[in-house]
Amino acid sequence: MAYKSAFDFSVMKSEFEKAGIKHHFIPLIWKHVLQNPNCQWDEIPSLPSAAYPLLNSKFKLSTSALHSVINSNDKVTTKLLIKLQNGEFVEAVIMRYDTRLGKYDGKPRTGGPRSTLCVSSQVGCKMGCKFCATGSMGYKSNLSSGEIVEQLVHASRISTIRNVVFMGMGEPLNNYASVVEAIRVMTASPFQLSPKKITVSTVGIIHAINKLQTDIPNLNLAVSLHAPVQDIRCQIMPAARAFPLERLMNALREYQNNSQQKIFIEYIMLDGVNDEEQQAHQLGKLLETLQVVINLIPFNPIGTLSHFSTSNDQKVTRFQKILRGTYNIRTTVRKQMGQDISGACGQLVVSLPDKRSTGSADPLTDIEDLRI
């Protein structure tokens, strides 16, 4: 029998209820495990006596193990390779920023150094986006809520995590129940992350988008749009055929009407594919009735897996100026981070490293946490 993670809330709650144990003890267990990573179940104080044999027989402090830690040369990005108990691997990435650098709405920003964790929700991915290394793996399995939370646990022992983005391996809304439960754990004691500090990215799983807003209010939604017209979107994102652009836009309008929150739009810049001035205008017209922040993402090389190349700086700047100047849409350009360790956007694909490295980080300006 496979052990369940201590952070699989619904499973532990169910087992506790069957044993007549109140589930309010669960956060106390999590707190002790976080503070004492090498503890044994019997060392956790103040639990009902029936809890100890139950925990020993059905749960593990962690069902995953940190296989390797690789830092980028600039020590700003750290990639974690995590081995699951079924032998599969997933990756998570820590990105370090300094929110005092740069400006927000033309004003100096407050805050200080902080870390964002990019987590995976699946082993592999079904979406098959042609610019993404994870898609080359195909789909293998969903992660449990506990396996998702354990990525935060592993990362928290390396850096204090303030923001979490579901932008790693997998399509989060294709593993809806586990992702929602993981977020509920992350926003509860002892983690206590604010929903406003958590972002879920999706290619546009229409039926799940508005359900997400109902299930977890105040969460940030990011949409991997990547093209302003359906034809191009289908060429580079095969799964887009199931989610026509017109229906997706209607879903986003409904989401925004209900949530009253800005939506983040991710747009990867592919040279000669989606980066022409005409496409900037098409994108502006598509989004001008929504309150959005567009994040232009330079394409990150994925070896022989793709024939795409990234747009040059002049094209990216021109694209940004059209969206800002003509359509008054806030548009940022994502800072490239972690390319040298294949930890940048679109580069996550499991490969076993032969080294482990550590080091401290120099902060960068934050370009993702736009709510500071």
TrEMBL record:
Cofactor names: [4Fe-4S] cluster
Gene Ontology terms for molecular function: 4 iron, 4 sulfur cluster binding; metal ion binding; methyltransferase activity
Protein's UniProt name: Radical SAM superfamily protein
Gene Ontology cellular component list: cytoplasm
Organism phylogeny: Eukaryota, Viridiplantae, Streptophyta, Embryophyta, Tracheophyta
Domain Radical SAM core: 111-340
Segments crossing the lipid bilayer: none
Domain of life: Eukaryota
Species name: Forsythia ovata
UniProt cross-references to InterPro entries, sorted A to Z: Aldolase_TIM, Methyltransferase_A, RNA_MTrfase_RlmN, rRNA_lsu_MTrfase_RlmN/Cfr, rSAM, rSAM_sf
